[in-house]
Amino acid sequence: MSHVLPIEPHPAKCAHSPVLQEASVSPDLSRRDFLRYSGATGAAAFIAATLSACSGGPASTGSVGAGSNKDLITAVIGYGNDQSWDPTQTASAFAMAGITHVYEGLLDTDPITREPYPALATALPSDLNATSWKFTLREGAKWHDGQPVTADDVVFTYQRVLDPEANVLVGNFFRSWLQEVKKVDDRTVELVFKFAFPDAAPRLTIAKIMPKHVFGQPGAWDAAKGGKAVGSGPYKLTAHNPKSNTTFEAFDGYNGPRPAAAKKMNWLSIVDASARVAKISGASAEAQIADNIPYANVDQLKQQGLTVEGGAGMNHLFLMFNTGAKPFDDVRVRQALHYAIDKKKLIDVALKGHGTASSSFLNEGHPDHKRAAVVYDYDPDKAKALLKEAGVANLTVNLMSVNVSWLVDCLPTIAASWEAIGVKTTLEPQDTAALFAKMDQFQDYQVVAAASNPNQFGMDADLIMRYNYVSGGLWMKYSHFEGSKEAKALFAQMDQATKEPDKAKKTELLHKYLDLIAEQAVVYPVVHTELMTAWDPKKLTGVRAQPYPGINLLQTKRV
């Protein structure tokens, strides 16, 4: 795979090196000694100072004067825009949000209700339990370069999605149930299933249809990764400046169900929380909307007249263990480190109450949620007992993490909790791409803390779990877990649940394998959090806050 960074999904990128610099530390103190945890306040301040240098790009790429331009929506996105823009490969929050405005699936889903609606197709499937679905393409649909959308483009896209050699990220959501996609005529395609799969309709939004005449050329997929975008959606991408901003304008040739409501958009990538808030604050605010609002700034922004709303969902901080390195190959050690975390303190202090301790991989608001057989309620005594039972003493852990602002706020509590049970802890927050470049190179590591939200792709439990747990998937390779007998048993249980036609039996099988995932604690959430979006209601209408990273402005207008 070349390359998706499946984080937060990949929110935090920084133009400056975010790795804690030795030069910032007293000459008498080594980097490791300084980061050895001696108190939450000092470590938190040090991390915050380090990350304050990070922003989404130079001010010259911003939106000076944009506040009075009613043809333009200026948005501030709290994630990097310099990761993959290939719709088949990316899990980048910024890229996925942008792609939703540029491309279409056969069906798309409402960003809030997640109900499917016809996009490039003219109608929803009439029989959800059928083993094949036929779709007619919208008459007059065009690519942004003026060429017509045809059945060949649909077949081309799905061939890549299903190709085991390409092994693209979104293929994990289709290969278990979709056999092939066939051309019937120039405007008709047929999806052939391996078995009836009623949950398929909302899944189709994940496969954004791409033009064969553009991306069928040599080197085109690398160009897509770098920001080349030719879609059939309501907006076309007009400029892409990595680590800075991405611009869009309404596509005059769009004839679909959700036309652009604004003429132009400028999305600024600003990872640093204080700089992001400043862009939408005060009388001279340059932007009208920002996502990933820090919890500490919610009341301040409301007092300034901004609307600030959140959405609770699958967004979570998780720990990933290298099960190929001792002692993390021992499930008792992984469990001990989860039991040791004071989640109430983490939620109260770092998340300002906007979080819930995980009681399953699925968040408590999910319709398929059930409290897992193993729940990691705060229990330092049990953590100590598990380490003793595993024969582990004087453990030192280097906790690497992405530099997402709210996640970095959580690190001091995690480190203090581990110190309290005798586990020496160092913290190493860093740029998302830098961290996962190490993972891709299979460099040695112990534990990673990162943020993720599979709800970007969809809501059903099968999809959510296959984002993280699938044979050949990146997370399983990163964690060195996929070859274990426990992983093989898990994958078999997941396949059995996917094929089960009876909803009650399917749910029973789902809960069974969720218990196994909780027990193994290889890639597992610590807390589920709420994501906050702020906007100026005097300048924008039609905004809806979503419970996953990014924004959707398809129905948003300037006032």
Automatic annotation (TrEMBL):
PROSITE patterns membership: SBP_BACTERIAL_5, TAT
Subcellular localization: Cell membrane
Domain Solute-binding protein family: 115-465
Gene3D superfamilies hit by this protein: Dipeptide-binding Protein, Domain 3, Periplasmic binding protein-like II
Biological processes per GO annotation: peptide transport
Keywords: Signal
Membrane topology type: Lipid-anchor
InterPro entries on file: Peptide/Ni-bd, SBP_5, SBP_5_CS, SBP_5_dom, TAT_signal, TAT_signal_bac_arc
Keyword Transport found: no
GO molecular function, one term: peptide transmembrane transporter activity
Domain of life: Bacteria
Keyword Metal-binding on entry: no
Stored Pfam families: SBP_bac_5, TAT_signal
GO CC annotations on file: ATP-binding cassette (ABC) transporter complex; periplasmic space
Family to which this protein belongs: Belongs to the bacterial solute-binding protein 5 family.
NCBIfam families the UniProt entry points to: TAT_signal_seq
Name recorded for this polypeptide: ABC transporter substrate-binding protein
Organism whose genome encodes this protein: Nonomuraea rhodomycinica
